[in-house]
Write a structure and sequence with these properties.
By secondary structure, the chain is mainly beta. The chain contains 2 helices and 13 strands. A 4-stranded mixed beta sheet has the order 8-1-13-12. Strands 2-7-6-3 form a 4-stranded mixed beta sheet, with no helix packed on it. A 3-stranded antiparallel beta sheet has the order 9-10-11.
Length: about 150
């Protein structure tokens, strides 16, 4: 429906990171997730449907990914765009493929694999999306700052 949009505050995956096969860059919506943040050039933007969203800057983001046999590990994403109006955080499958990873959706558990076929992580299906990192929607900005510092080496 043209002109229809929903608020970022109402989307249950707003803090989570989903795998997106259509986006050409990683996009996150909260500045508190970023490391080494740098401002974008004036005029940088992305299209989200019919909407032109400004890119406020770029940086690195750490996400916590699930290991298929239990446990988690940290994956650092580089050159991530900050777009505060995007409804959830997007991890670009295209960029992962350029780095030698691929999406294996043949087994019952959907996986991201390395080029040598070893498993990088498993994905969870939630709200009809493939979720790399699942973070509850009621987490606030301060929690992201504390969490980011916990992962920073």
């Amino acid at each position: 429906m043209k002109g229809a949009a929903f608020s970022i505050d109402n989307y249950p995956l707003k803090n989570s990171a989903i795998l997106d096969s259509g986006t050409t860059l990683h996009i996150f919506n909260q500045i508190s997730r970023f490391l080494n943040f740098r401002a974008a050039l004036e005029g940088d933007f992305v299209w989200a449907g019919d909407y032109k969203l400004p890119i406020l800057g770029y940086g690195e983001v750490d996400i916590k990914i699930k290991q298929p046999i239990g446990g988690t590990r940290i994956m650092r994403l580089y050159d991530v765009a900050l777009c505060e109006g995007i409804v959830c955080n997007l991890v670009s499958l295209r960029i992962l493929r350029q780095k030698g990873y691929y999406w294996d959706n043949k087994p019952k558990t959907t996986l991201i694999r390395r080029s040598d076929d070893s498993i990088l992580c498993s994905l969870e299906e939630k709200h009809d999306q493939f979720v790399l990192e699942d973070i509850l929607e009621d987490i606030d900005q301060a929690a992201f700052f504390a969490r980011r510092n916990q992962f920073n080496t």
